Amino acid sequence: MNPAVHLDGITKRFPGVVANDDVDLEIERGSVHALLGENGAGKTTLMNVLYGLYRPTEGTVVVDGEPRSFASPRDAIDAGIGMIHQHFMLVDPMTVWENVVLGNEPRTWGGLRVDEAAAREAVVELSERYGFDVDPDARIADVSVGVQQRVEILKALYRGADVLIMDEPTAVLTPQEVEELYDVFEELTDQGKTIIFISHKLGEALSAADEITVLRDGVKVGTVASADVTREELAEMMVGREVLMEPATTPREPGERVLEVTDLHVDDDRGVEAVSGITFELRGGEVFGIAGVDGNGQSQLAEAITGMREPASGSVDYLGEPMAGVSRRGHIDRGMAFVPEDRHERGLVMSYDLVQNGILGSQHDPPFASGGRIDWEASTEHAESVIEAYDVRPPNPDADAEDFSGGNQQKFIVGREFERDPDLVVATHPTRGVDIGSTEFLHDRLLELRAEGKAVLLISSKLDEVQGLSDRLAVIHEGEFSGVVDPATVTEEEIGLLMAGESLADETVSGAAIHDALDDGLGGSGADGADDVEAGSDRETAADGEVDA
Amino acid sequence: MSGGDGGRLPSPVRRVIEPFVDRTVAERVLISIAAILLSIGVGFAIVLVSGRIAQCSTAAWTMPVTGLGFCYDPIEVYVVLFNGALGYPFAVGEPGIFNAAWTPFNLSFGLTLSETTLLIFTGLSVAVAFRAGLFNIGTQGQLVVGALATALTVLAIAPLLPAGPIAGVVVVAVGTLAGAVGGGLWGAIPGALKAYADANEVITTIMLNFVAANVAYVLVLEVFRAEGSSVVATRYVPEHAQFRPWLFPNSSDFALLALLVAVGFIGGLYYVVEHTPFGYDLRTSGVQAAAAEYGGVNAKLTTVRAMTLSGALGGVGGAVWVLMSEGRWIESVPDLGFDGITVSILAGNNPLGVLPAAFLFGLLKGGALEIGFRTDVPTELVGVLRGLIILFVAMPEFFRMAGRYAGLGSDGPGGPKTSGTGSEDGESEASGDAAGSGSDAAAVGGGEADA
């Protein structure tokens, strides 16, 4: 029997870049295949070739034994290939079923009218066939990200896809939702569908895929069965050298109290309370981690601490000084570094080159500002040193920020902030989108800061990251700490429960309660009505994030 | 598809606007030149058509081959427009390419440069506000207020000093400063309203234009009107307290010194915007307000400062208008402030670009006067031709700015975002492609919906 997809010697060149170099790939029907590699390894490019977004420079795409030449995704869809992008293409105010049929609606009245009943029926039928737990009449804006993803899958299936390509499908999901996604994979492959997913997370490839193909610098390193390979072997294939999987944490020596947050309440942009009474303190030489599902008040907490947002009530004391009424400038001047969560909106000015971005926040301070002018030489040197130390690629300080890949943008921001010589680093999602090799480096730098006696507030949705680096770990849910735990002894299941807003003492937790809580946490209404999700059991693989660092 | 502002534009509009957003400077200059040629082509046709419709005894131009006669000569119109604006450096109706009798210090060229000088100030005024992300429509009002402040200040202090060159320098400097202060304060009002009351500066500056014009009118009418004057105007400031038109004829209302001052302002403003911490704050606020806030920029203060600076530049424009062109404040203030908006757009809001943009405007103004003297072409038609040139040249830049506002182009602020994933994991492969694949994907989404 023919493989579902056979990519034969695919080479894709862009001006100055070879994104894929003679890549062969065979994918068996009914299997789950992971495409693993670091940022810029060429994974997405390869899949865009398969999906008809790019034409290969050389090589052939063979679908079901038949050589194909796709001029556009429309052709690929006709050949039974569907792609689910990392950012969903859904219309928020429309319902689930409307989104699924959009563009391919069944018609009546000679094509003048959408046959709504038939459309809805078709979506319900599809959803039931694959065991998707989706309310067809819920509005997209009201359902969780996990459900939105299932709607995207339904869209592809509705268009007759046999091969589903998913780009970083777990990037936006909670651990529980990741588990549910794996169940969806199983259901789909049982019914003969083939799944290819792009990932840079080892654990996810190991637990969800049957076979794993590793790409590095556009070249295929190899294809292995997930049963026959270890994490260490995979990591080495990806990075090309041995990777230390555990950061070398030394015993902590807490120093002076750097930050004291007392009963802090913070509102979000709409005036709704996002942080509801958080109290903690942070000493020099200590990493305090905050884990939680995105959107539970982490952003507002970080912004209130770093002077970007006025707290509604409560206090933040920094180095023994109350920070109420101190400007953002004042926070920077007092030695507070901040890695913001949104690098495109805040962390970088996208149309500026790295020289100008390197002085963002220091534009009034020596050595960059002297005698009322900006010293571009000193600024260029600074940008170059950050680029070199943090391995920002390409190493060109004159290139605009928008021309760098997400991972390299992130490395530059983290480098700029870490090199401020701060007393406190507030880092939100510092390694988001950063590949495994660089993540390892950033983690090492973070621990170096800690060893130098700096205080680090680490906010991340990557459980292994906060757990591996923190001396103390708090879990945030709906603006409150649902628990502060010892990261050395807590299990991922326990953190998962805390993230859902449960307390650890309560042993009789129902799956439905967790699911609803997660939906609430994401701002949805739980419209999918998960009544029998077995979230309480068998979750050892949940959230085995990118690097076990 | 839902998402960012750019996503809300219908896709044909996106396709038209998007290519203009990411042009390099060289490409933009080329586009501008092509636009001028194209506008001349269109204007040519319009002159021909009007020339067919109009009645005249003898044809000014006969079309080769066909022998059709036209009342207006389209070639002459454009020759006079550009040649005349410079005072005829190129020979007309005589042998040779150059006109031997030509000197740069002629009346027509003086009028052209006079207009250029004034538009440099108002263009800079609009540009600096725009760089801070503020749309200052109020340069006109700031100019009116600045002009009045200058006239009154000079009238007050000039008699205190003995007439002479030294007193002239002092009085002109103080008068210009008064214009800057007056315009700056008038500009600070909408700045403060924007910063502290969240009032849209487009609305407030437009309204303040009316306030400025009418308050100044009433003040001069009731208090400062020159005795026996038939128009609403102040007394003339003393001759020694004006920018003197050395070299150029008196009636050109042009002073080389004022142009040099204007060019100095261009250099100064460029330096401030590009090479000072204040300029960095200002630019960053303009391109990405959230990043500026993150970088410790006080948004409110920057808004007030930028509007004050913008207003001060408009005010200096008013001062030069009084001290160079009119010699007094007079009710019929030309629309220099509004033309400054177009000059700034033409210049891509870059201070250095204001010089050629203002010069193009000056040429068109001076040339239009010449066409009126030399040909039968009605002034209204000349206005149409000017408008065409400006429209064609400004449109690409306007698209570019509008596109940036709507968040189009390569991954700029407010760039394409898609439905509620909320999180931005952005593992983007091989830089550059990322943006490409993103917009491709968006196009696919659109395609599906259209089908």
UniProtKB/TrEMBL annotation, chain A:
Residue numbers spanned by region Disordered: 520-549
Main location group: membrane
InterPro entries in UniProt: AAA+_ATPase, ABC_carbohydrate_import_ATPase, ABC_transporter-like_ATP-bd, ABC_transporter-like_CS, P-loop_NTPase
Subcellular location field: Cell membrane
All copies of domain ABC transporter, residue ranges: 5-242, 259-503
Cited CDD domains: ABC_Carb_Monos_I (cd03216), ABC_Carb_Monos_II (cd03215)
GO cellular component, one term: plasma membrane
Membrane topology recorded in Swiss-Prot or TrEMBL: Peripheral membrane protein
The protein's name: ABC transporter ATP-binding protein
TrEMBL record, chain B:
Record keywords: Cell membrane, Membrane, Transmembrane, Transmembrane helix
GO cellular component, one term: plasma membrane
Signal peptide feature range: none
Domain of life: Archaea
Region feature (Disordered): 408-451
Ranges of biased composition (kind: Low complexity): 431-443
Protein name according to UniProt: ABC transporter permease
Source organism (scientific name): Halorubrum glutamatedens
Lineage: Archaea, Methanobacteriati, Methanobacteriota, Stenosarchaea group, Halobacteria
